[in-house]
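Record 1 of the preview.
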Amino acid sequence: MNSRHPERHRSGRVGWLRAAVLGANDGIVSIAGLVVGVAAAGAAHEGVLTAGIAGTVAGAMSMAAGEYVSVQSQADTERADLAVEHRELHQEPDDELEELAAIYRARGLAPDLAREVAEQLTRHDALGAHARDELGITDTLRARPLQAAGASAAAFCAGAALPMTAALLAPDGRVEAATIAATLLALLLSGSLAAWAGGAPVPRGAIRVAFWGALAMATAAAVGRLFGASTGL
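->
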């Protein structure tokens, strides 16, 4: 009798999901704040749209660059640690074997069994065993800079599209209100999707994201009105 026990784990999504969620939320909030702030300052419809487009391009590039540099730093550290481990495995194989056995003893295996497991894993893939069990580096969670950069930039543009669409379709004099309403709905949706994808409570995720977005837009609107009043726009 064939027995199947399929399991769906979400940890494999961590590398791109974190970057995508950050990029999408940043795209929504940043561009919405920019559009609302410029509109509150009294700028013309065309000026609001120009500012939004420029902000979207600059923001997407900034997110991609920031994610790439950040995750690449993590990847460099992982490679450096693996190089050290590779060197030690060749120079001090007995010490490394005992180190691996000690890890398994600390996890609850009997000394003889821990030694046997360490020996078998060392024969199979010594560097992989030390990377996983000593350094905590796995293929699932390993740093992938290009993946993170691409996910972040694409998600930023996708997030920015909603406040930009609201600003484009809104009639003159209603850009600020339309953008705020559309953005809050988008934040509730993105927070819900992110919570669902990560296995977290959906209402909590939605409210948390929407709160910070509302705060950002309120601050941007206040600054825009202050700037508009001081410059006579």
